[in-house]
Amino acid sequence: MNPRRKKRLVIVSSVLIGLGAVAGLVLYALSQNIDLYYTPTEIVQGKKDSGLKPNLGQRIRVGGMVVAGSVKRDPNSLKVSFELVDVGPKITVQYDGLLPDLFREGQGIVTNGVLVAGTLLEASEVLAKHDENYMPKEIADSLGKDYKKAVEQKAAGN
Question: Whole domain around residue 10: which residue ranges?
């Protein structure tokens, strides 16, 4: 083999190995955040397919409906706590900050935060839907077709 071709082969091989190593490291680093979204039921009971539950201290995203009558505001600060529900158990969310203008009881929201207890999430961000007809796909899928009826029955029953 020609020394010039041999040098090119070594350079191309080195670049490909380097790119493969970088891609592997990136995928490994992102593997903790790939399955970030949970519903309140999945936090308590685990995912349907794997039974996987989030660990305490893990940053997660949770979506559900705000339970009517569950919003409690601290009169001396911006702290607020409320309950989220889908079709199963409820979880409590604590947030210290300004809530979105469209936040209200009985509405679908998505919140980012850290799981500090089995059913307690300390939120760092709360996202509300942008109009009365919109519901995030993940929430609508997890709640099913009769999500409004299920949430009303859950709120009335507890």
Answer: 1-31
Tell me the DSSP string of the chain: --HHHHHHHHHHHHHHHHHHHHHHHHHHHHTTTTT-EE-HHHHHH--TTT---PPTT-EEEEEEEEPTT--EE-TTSSEEEEEEESSS-EEEEEEESPPPTT--TT-EEEEEEEEEETTEEEEEEEEE-SSTT---HHHHHHH-TTHHHHHHHHHHH-
Q: How confident is the model at residue 140 (pLDDT cuts 50, 70, 90)?
A: low
| 24 and 42 assigned to the same domain | no
| Whether residue 69 sits in one domain with residue 43 | yes
pLDDT digits (tens, 9 = 90+) for 24-79: 998 888 765 555 788 888 888 888 888 788 888 888 888 888 888 889 998 998 89
- Distance CA(82)–CA(13), nearest Å, equals 56
| Residues 14 and 82 both lie in one domain | no
Read off the pTM: 0.64
Asked if residue 102 has pLDDT above 60, the reply is: yes
